[in-house]
Specification:
globular; alpha/beta; 2 domains; 6-stranded parallel beta sheet; UDP N-Acetylglucosamine Acyltransferase, domain 1; Rossmann fold
Length: 213
């Protein structure tokens, strides 16, 4: 069976992880990587094709899909901006899913998702576009993770939770069942969220409370 051709977006640490997971999937052939660094010729052994603007030129002669390699441990806005721009240009993204995961057959996955090893996605959970679920994260049943969010390593999201778009749950964060987070919420490392949180807030601690600048 021929492998589908893929170009990876980005040349940072997240892109390295994405490439490693693609290798483990064994379904795709990476033909290049995009980069803003015009001095870079290769990345992880693959040719650097230039910046994202080169994709339209390559598309004229070659059929391929994209893998999102931009991270979001500080902010998800850049990853969202790039994803939305490339979708408007007509590109499709693959889901990069490590084989050592547990994903319910009733779960719903969007496009451009990256799922690290050890992740568990439970019954009727829904993961929207361009979400990162990092190492050993857990998503409870009937929970919704809205687009462009990052659930960091060992974070645990309870059942019937809603995580707003562009939100960041840092390493080891805990969201108890039934909670709703608004858009662009940051939950600090190890925090435990026990009540719903409005948009654009940053919360830390046990129980999690808003941090005032």
């Amino acid at each position: 069976m021929s492998q589908e051709k893929i170009i990876v977006i980005g040349d940072g640490n997240q892109a390295e992880v994405v490439i490693d997971i693609i290798h483990s999937q064994n379904n795709y052939k990476i033909i290049g990587v995009t980069s803003q660094d015009n001095t870079l010729d290769k990345f992880c052994g693959y040719p650097v094709i230039g910046d994202d603007a080169q994709l339209l030129e390559i598309k004229k002669n070659t059929a391929f899909k994209l893998a999102m390699g931009i991270g979001g441990y500080r902010s998800n806005s850049k990853r969202k901006e790039v994803f939305d721009k490339l979708k408007k240009q007509g590109f499709d993204f693959i889901n990069v899913i490590h084989p050592f995961t547990s994903i319910s057959k009733t779960a719903s996955l969007g496009e451009g998702i990256t799922i690290y090893a050890g992740t568990v996605i439970n019954t009727h959970a829904k993961i929207e576009d361009n979400v990162i679920l990092a190492l050993n994260s857990s998503i409870g049943h009937h929970t919704l993770i809205k687009g462009h969010s990052l659930i960091s390593a060992s974070a645990s999201i309870g059942a019937n939770v809603v995580i707003g778009e562009e939100s960041l749950i840092a390493m080891g964060g805990r969201i108890i069942s039934g909670i709703q987070l608004g858009r662009n919420v940051t939950v600090g490392a190890g925090a435990v969220v026990v009540k719903s949180i409005g948009a654009n807030q940053k919360v830390f601690g046990i129980p999690a409370k808003e941090k005032h600048e």
